Amino acid sequence: MNVFFLQPLVPHYRVPFFRRLARTRDFHLSVHASERVPGQSLGTAPECLGPDSPFEVHLHPCRAFAGGRMFWQDVSLPRGFGRGDVFVMPGAPRWPRNFALAAEARARGAAVVWFGQGYGVGASRPQVAARHVFARLCDHAVLYTESETRRWLAAGFPADRLTAMNNALDQAPIRAAAAAVTPEALAALRAAHGLEGRHILLMVGRLTDKAGAEVLVEALRDLPADYTAVFIGGGEDTPIVQTRVVELGLGDRVRMLGPVYDEAVLAPWFRAADVFVYPGGIGLSIHHAFGYGLPVVTHGEADEQMPEFAALVPGVNGEVFPRGDARALARTLAALCGDADRRAALARGAAETVSTGWNIDDMVARFAAAIRIAGRRRGA
Q1: 255 and 311 assigned to the same domain
Q2: What is the CATH classification number for the domain harbouring 155?
């Protein structure tokens, strides 16, 4: 079975997924993407760009139009692609070429799998309705989480044409990096950054409007002086966060380290932190923190969260607070950091979450099953 998997990019966190999917014995997987998307800082992972790519990758030019709101990839289906094969397409309407290719794939007799978020931060009802319509025209749909599939099923989507992949990270490098951190390394980290005897509130991710980092800065005002917020990541909102830190006179209680991608460098910060805080819509960062056994605190308004929020169970692996309420966040953090036994219980729950279902092997198995179901449906 030839599987033509179209993506805007192949970011570094997707490499383990495609590497494992390519090992599926009954597939011949080819991944089609662009090296860059105009206006976006994220690009295809460097290890995918050369002849030693861990799986078959074809790169295609990408251009923006309609004022940067729409995108077009110059990609075509290969000769011979047709009956018995499967075309996997991102479901975002901003990529109209995807839908033209899907129509061509169907005309050739191939199956089409619609792949995307069922909901997400800022998705309006018309946008969600459009996703339903486009997905129904395909042979199968793959959503990010089981929580999303339940809502689609309640809206009448056919159960035999829907799969939840439970979007996750490869935990192997996280486990290895965590195991390599020694008590001496943690002590050195605290000493180097003036953090001895302090509670560390860690946020790792791009500082964008979605992230809501300034809410954590404002929460510091209502926390004791021995609480420090550590931000790791770049992003367009970095100057806004820095300005707010200065305005509130919190410079000695905030560390902004910029973007860091080396897991060995990140690991001591995750191990040293008391809690992982993401005031905005949290995505795969939740699994990054869970991999280190670190409880997560984020806002609890599910309709304004990313799909991966479904992995959080308050009281089991983290806690939630009212969206945008800095004082409530401060109360939540104070209660959690002040109770070592409760924090330890949440840490165990976090580690168990990514070892019993939210992991890369389960994710690949689910997606491979969806591809086979679509292939059989079109073949029949």
Answers
A1: yes
A2: 3.40.50.2000
The dihedral through the CA atoms of 307, 311, 315, 317 has a sign that is negative
- Structural domains of the chain, count: 2
For the stretch 157-167, pLDDT in tens is 999 999 999 99
The percent of residues in the chain predicted with pLDDT above 90, rounded, is 89
Question: Which tens digits make up the pLDDT trace of 220-256?
Answer: 999 999 999 999 999 899 999 999 999 999 999 999 9
Same domain for 182 and 42: no
Residues 156 and 198 occupy one common structural domain? no
pLDDT digits (tens, 9 = 90+) for 69-97: 999 999 999 999 999 999 999 988 889 99
Name the pairing type of β-strands 28-33 and 57-59. parallel
- Whether residues 260 and 373 fall in one domain: no
Long-range contacts of 309-316 (CB under 8 A, 24+ apart): 309/281, 309/282, 310/145, 310/146, 310/147, 310/148, 311/145, 311/166, 311/286, 311/287, 311/353, 311/358, 312/282, 312/286, 313/349, 313/353, 315/346, 316/346, 316/349, 316/353
**Can you state the angle between helices 360-379 and 15-22, rounded to 10 degrees?**
50
Q: 373 and 274 in one domain?
A: no
Residues 236 and 106 in one domain: no
How far apart are the C-alpha atoms of 289 and 264, rounded to whole Å?
14
Full residue range of the structural domain in which residue 161 is found:
2-168+359-379
pLDDT tens-digit series, residues 243-290: 999 999 999 999 999 999 899 999 999 999 999 999 999 999 999 999
Statement to judge: residues 256 and 268 lie in one domain = yes
Report the pLDDT value the prediction gives residue 281, as an integer from 0 to 100. 94
For the cut 80, the answer to whether the pLDDT of residue 122 exceeds it is no
Helix 263-272 × helix 183-192 angle, to 10°: 90
